[in-house]
Design brief:
GO terms for molecular function: transferase activity. The protein is of the alpha/beta class. The chain contains 34 helices and 15 strands. The strands form five sheets. It has a six-stranded mixed beta sheet, with helices on one face. The chain has a three-stranded antiparallel beta sheet with strand order 9-13-12. It has a two-stranded antiparallel ribbon with strand order 1-2. A hairpin with a 7-residue loop joins β1 and β2.
């Protein structure tokens, strides 16, 4: 931060330090950081400009009528803060020397800013360098010699580099005496002396100050004294150096300049031990065959150990990316050209990977099509987040529809499954919930964040339970049309009341705080729920309508061609109207009021147009399908390994300054993207395996929920993680409907292994009787097998999880 940086915008509003994210301090933060004490500026007119900029930052319109070459002081009573300037261009006045030698009777400043050099060049001719060097050496000696906390001249000292003026705008006498070679020699000496200081010394020379004015067309009126656009940025760098490490070390950690990340807490250390020590140890024992009985008791199977190790490496990579200074972080800045360029690039990637099949009609909203749909929506969301496009209302509004599109798939997919399969058992619930929440659950502790901050996972989980409850209640009557529609209407009324009625969410969150020490923001959660309060029900009704169309074979009737053409025409009109409407809204806040009631228009229009012909249904993009299959991992993983600072910035893998901009920036983007997608892919593979392991042995528990045995042994459920992907359909030969954001490879369970034995297959006890008749001894289960059976019971796992959750949260 102190040595390099650049402007992110042509308006010179956002300064980007090299490799870190700076904080813009406000009045209350300044007074708190400085201990309601004193800022002291000593030097020439350049330092005085920074002094006035600081006073103006604390309180706008602060002015002084004091003559130019005099001392100035401002006392800000409410803030209990004083800002003082001593006119001493040579740093050799009596009181300055007394301060530097710790002989001053004045109170010690919290931040001392000193600067000199211009008057030496201007007035001392050939002696300028010797005299200037004596002045700055006095400061260096004071900083280096007074290491005792009680004898320090200030809590922190900032020495201004010799200013690099705009030489072509200097007056003639200044131009003749203040020259570039002189400035370079003096700043070179400052760098040499600074390199001799210990790293722990509270002293800094922000050479980046001279880069802030570079390239500005209207930065100064005389070439020497800069306008507030420059001096405000300079003092912010000084405040970041002094105060950033005193900012709260809690989520979100989006101010990384001069900031020490907190030491990992005990529960974060447990994750490190588990993933980097315990799991590798178990893999070693499993591979070597040593202590087999103990290994089986203390560790899961070797395949699960490998999945745990892979999962652990992925999340620890996120930790090192966003909770250490291993990689750099920079601010987001919206650039229309970059946003458009990235969208064109991913569009080309989608088009060149198109594939088509001639093997019949894959059907309405088939597997490939829904994976593709998730994929291109996810790509746009990623580009949107990466470029900081949320500041543009027209883009924000459209992206809100993409989130609604995922929730539409959630309603469609889960409704289709429950209606066709009738499986409401615990197995179905756990597979979906575990697969959706595993990564988010681990990250909230490992990254010390908040569960609701990964808003999509809790959002989809909430609506899954709404759908499950709606379909489960008196499910034997779900084939009665009016009864099913009535349940959907009642469910919508209940959720609307929950979302909009003041106090309900607050009360629920208070119970969670009391029982599990979970502290969630009811206002933020209400906002998330309200935006998409109806689209899930639209998805459910769409699935129901499709099922009835297939049952009554409406697509074979004579009026179907006319209905089809009408729907296509209405979809074109609806899509056009939507974009006109959202672009005409004044702000995104205004648009949000309408979004819950109109988001279904572009979504249904897209569904109709995407399925208008068999050729369109049979064609999909492999690139988008790939992204769609890992859409859960990419959505959650972007928070810490593509973005940074808890989504407030961007991750810079190559943190050297020359690689953080220009062509180097694009190289960084390419490397970080490859790492991001690779980690997301392997996270998906590992999470799928771990979901099967966690939910193993669930069928017996499912029986108690009332799911018919037929559905337990025949229902196949996908478990991905963020909305509902709809696979199968008419003509595709695949009756199964997938769930969005759950990979197609994730199945509920291998029920052939875990289901109860039938009457035709002897049970264990029956087998024991046969063995006894043959004279064979009855084999008793070992203690390790008994422990395995106990922890294999999913009900035991659920109770243990809730107990551990409450205990851990209480201790956090």
């Amino acid at each position: 931060m102190l040595n390099d940086g650049w402007w992110l915008d042509d308006a010179y509003k956002v300064w980007q330090p090299s490799g870190c994210m700076m904080h813009n301090f406000q009045t209350s933060e300044i007074s708190s950081c400085l201990g309601h004490s004193k800022l002291l500026y000593i030097g020439d007119s350049v330092v005085r400009q920074q002094f006035y900029a600081t006073a103006t930052l604390i309180r706008e319109n602060t002015t002084s009528i004091a003559p130019g070459h005099t001392d100035v002081r401002f006392d800000f009573t409410p803030e209990n803060l004083s800002v003082e300037f001593w006119w001493d261009p040579y740093l050799n006045s009596t009181r300055t020397v007394e301060l530097l030698e710790s002989r001053s009777t004045a109170s010690r400043p919290s931040l001392l800013v000193v600067g000199t050099g211009l008057w030496h060049m201007r007035h001392l001719e050939d002696d300028y360098y010797v005299e200037w060097r004596n002045s700055v050496n006095r400061v260096f000696d004071a900083v280096q010699g007074n290491k005792n906390k009680n004898n320090k001249i200030a809590d922190a000292v900032v020495m201004a580099p010799v200013e690099l003026p705009f030489f072509d705008q200097l007056s003639k006498d200044r131009h003749d005496t203040i020259t570039l070679p002189k400035v370079e020699v003096m700043n070179g000496y400052l760098k040499d002396r600074q390199s001799e200081l210990e790293l722990t010394t509270s002293f800094a020379i922000p050479f980046a100050w001279n880069k802030i004015s570079v390239g500005m067309n209207n930065a100064t009126k005389d070439g020497l004294h800069f306008y507030p656009s420059v001096t405000q940025a300079q003092i912010q760098l000084g405040l970041n150096y002094r105060c950033n490490d005193q900012l709260p070390k809690t989520f979100p950690m989006s101010n990384t300049c001069c900031f020490r990340y907190p030491t990992p807490r005990w529960y974060q250390t447990i994750f490190f031990f588990l993933f980097l020590v315990w799991i590798p140890f178990g893999m070693y024992l499993a591979g070597s065959g040593y202590m087999k009985s103990v290994t089986q008791c203390l560790f899961p199977s070797e395949s699960v150990l490998k999945a745990l190790f892979l999962f652990g490496l992925c999340v620890i990579y996120m930790f090192f990316g966003d909770r250490t200074h291993l990689f750099g972080k920079i601010h987001k800045h919206f650039d229309p050209a970059m946003f458009g360029g990235l969208l064109v690039a991913v569009l080309v990637g989608g088009l060149v990977s198109l594939k088509s099949t001639n093997e019949g009609d894959l059907g309405f909203l088939n597997r490939d099509q829904t994976d593709e749909w998730k994929g291109w929506m996810q790509v746009i969301i990623l580009v949107y987040h990466f470029t900081g496009a949320s500041s543009v209302s027209g883009i924000y509004n459209a992206v809100r529809v993409l989130v609604a599109g995922y929730l539409f798939q959630t309603g469609y997919g889960h409704f289709f499954f429950f209606y066709k399969k009738g499986d409401y058992g615990l197995g179905r619930i756990l597979n979906v919930v575990v697969r959706l929440n595993m990564l988010t659950f681990v990250l909230q502790y490992l990254m010390d964040t908040d569960y609701l901050s990964y808003y999509f996972t809790p959002l989809v989980s909430f609506w899954f339970f709404v759908i499950w409850i709606t379909m489960y209640i008196h499910n034997k009557a779900n084939r009665i049309v009016w009864f099913l529609l009535l349940k959907i209407v009642i469910a919508s009324m209940v959720t609307t009341t929950l979302i909009h009625y003041p106090g309900i969410l607050e009360t629920i969150f208070e119970w969670l705080k009391l029982g599990f020490n979970i502290d969630w923001d009811a206002v933020e959660w209400r906002f998330r729920l309200r935006l998409d309060a109806w689209i899930v029900y639209v998805g459910m009704l769409s699935a129901f309508a499709y099922i009835k169309c297939m049952e009554y074979k409406l697509h074979e009737s004579g009026v179907w061609p006319m209905v089809k053409k009408t729907c296509i025409g209405l979809s074109c009109v609806g899509m056009t109207w939507y974009f006109w409407f959202e672009l005409s809204q004044d702000t995104k806040v205004v648009y949000n009021n309408s979004h819950p009631y109109i988001s279904w228009v572009p979504i249904l229009a897209f569904v109709v147009l995407r399925n208008a012909t068999a050729k369109l249904r049979n064609t999909s993009s492999r690139f988008y399908c790939f992204i769609g299959k890992i859409s859960l991992e990419t959505f959650i993983g972007q928070f810490h390994m593509w973005l940074a600072g808890d989504t407030r910035g961007l991750l810079v893998v190559l943190a050297r300054p020359e690689w953080a901009r220009g062509l180097g920036w694009w190289l960084n983007l390419g490397i970080s993207t490859i790492l991001f997608l690779s980690v997301s892919y392997y996270l998906g593979q590992a999470t799928t395996e771990l979901t099967k392991w966690i939910c193993s042995g669930v069928n017996k528990a499912s029986q108690s929920v009332g799911a018919p045995r037929y559905y337990e042994t025949n229902a196949t459920s996908a478990t991905s993680a963020a909305a509902a992907a709809i696979g199968g359909g008419n003509g595709g030969g695949n009756e199964y409907q997938s769930i969005p954001l759950l990979p197609a490879t994730t199945q509920t369970l291998d029920t052939s292994v875990h289901t109860e034995t039938s009457a035709e297959s002897p049970s264990v006890s029956a087998r024991g009787s046969i063995d006894e008749e043959l004279g064979s001894p009855v084999k008793r289960p070992s203690w390790t097998e008994r422990i395995g059976w106990f922890w294999g019971d999913v009900r035991v796992k659920c109770v243990a999880f809730l107990l551990c959750l409450g205990i851990v949260n209480r201790l956090c």
